[in-house]
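INFO worker-7 received task bundle
INFO bundle size: 2
INFO processing item 0
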Amino acid sequence: MAWADIPACSHSKLNPYLSADYEFKGGFRLLTKTFLHFCRSTYPLPMKQALYQSFIEKKKAGQKSFAVLIDPDKVDAEKIDQLVTLASDSGVDYFFVGGSLVISSHLDECIRQIKTSCSIPVLLFPGSPSQISKYADALLYLSLISGRNPELLIGQHVISAPFVKKSGLEIIPTGYMVVDGGAPTTVSYISNATPIPADKNDIAMCTAMAGEMLGMKLIYMDAGSGAKKAISEQMIEKVAKHIDIPLIIGGGITEPEKAYRNCKAGADLIVVGNAIEKDPHLIKEISNAIHSVAVNV
């Protein structure tokens, strides 16, 4: 019989110190098990990746996607119903909800209304750590890699990390790049960061490459809400050719043709907000243009 097979009582008869040792190890194992259970219940693991996987699969297939951006400050229940109906009828892929400055308190209500009305996934596009809702499907965990503001690069993330982890949301680390759209925008003002000049394609390329190598899962290039000019196809193409992760483009897109050209240049997902606020019926036209881009075979 092996020593490990001898019952604990036999150990104690052979050596009185073994009984105390056995009890200590048993108590330690119980403590460890309790601690691990606490950690798992407090911080659910593994982290969900369903939506991110859909991004990756679509990118591999060359399938382009369209997201409608909804700012909770600019919509009421009637407007949300209209946008959801148009989006569902037009084959919209995602809703992005959030903004640079959300001052209302109905973020949860906005998302819940969308979720109860359709099956289109809802991703949080937060302007601050407070913009978190458990009712969303995922969170774009934005790090402003184009600026030099440490708070938006990592500082606010440190503060929000415990709450984000406990939210149960799918967390998607996203390298956020603000590009000059020809006019001061809310995002450039709030971030206190200088946008990448519109004609500096190499800077944009290197910034996106750095973001990918630092572990970002998405790159989001944004000209900002109310931009006078959208990001050029030349810049999009330059960036797209040098990264392997999905590329999101937003800001200043006001017509279907521009959305189509952005996709042809290498964008994987187009986000439109302001133009749709002014004319919700653009949803169908822009969606048709994006989804008309040929898929890889």
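INFO item 0 finished
INFO processing item 1
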Amino acid sequence: MRAASTLAPQPDVTSPKRPSALNSQNYSDYIMTYQNRVDPAGTFHAVPAKGTLMGNRGILHDDTKTIFRTHGHQNWVTCALSFKGRQRSIMGEGKYTELFFLDEATAFAAGHRPCAECRLERYREFTQAWRQTHGEPEPGRPLPQTIDKALHAARIDRKRQKVVFDAEVESLPEGTIFRDGDDFVLIWQGRHWLWGFDGYQERHAKTCGRVSVLTPRPMVEVFRNGFTPAVHTSAQ
């Protein structure tokens, strides 16, 4: 199985090279910051950083482009920032809400899997790793639906709060993100990295003992079995 390594920042799919090429609606999207940047706990924030991946949980916004719910369906996916030249207006009427992630490790922590269309190769790698870790899909249920059902139970509860679990930090595989106080921390290349919307900073003092793990347990088990998430280039 091919393991991913690092991801370099890319431009927002909705933003062409020059603002002058945009119509009035897209230009508004170009200069505005919406509450659609996602942290490893799955919480939405309004910050300028776009990250390297886009995500989809369904229609989460109203006609004022305000997010009013955590998700619209169970198949939470991560998408490429550009695909076949398609253009979108952010939070269009009747369209899914575009979410943005720093990198794949962040998206997995928030509970998103690769999209089967715009990230087909990565989707195939991930689903192969899932089968090797968790076995075949439930009878009568396609593999993507089996994955989405398992991930949904492991990422958000009925009160729409983030699901976490405790574990010894030394037992966690690379690519896992855990919480240490108010910090989100990535385990990568034998080191601990402080997460931020613009990238990572190395923590020279490692956390020890039991921690609250943000990456859903089924995903951690996939990581432990050899699948490695792509991580932002700042973690080097």
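INFO item 1 finished
INFO post-check item 1: The helical segments are 24-31, 104-110, 120-134, 143-155, 217-224.
INFO post-check item 1: Residues 14 and 87 are 6 Å apart (CA to CA).
INFO worker-7 idle
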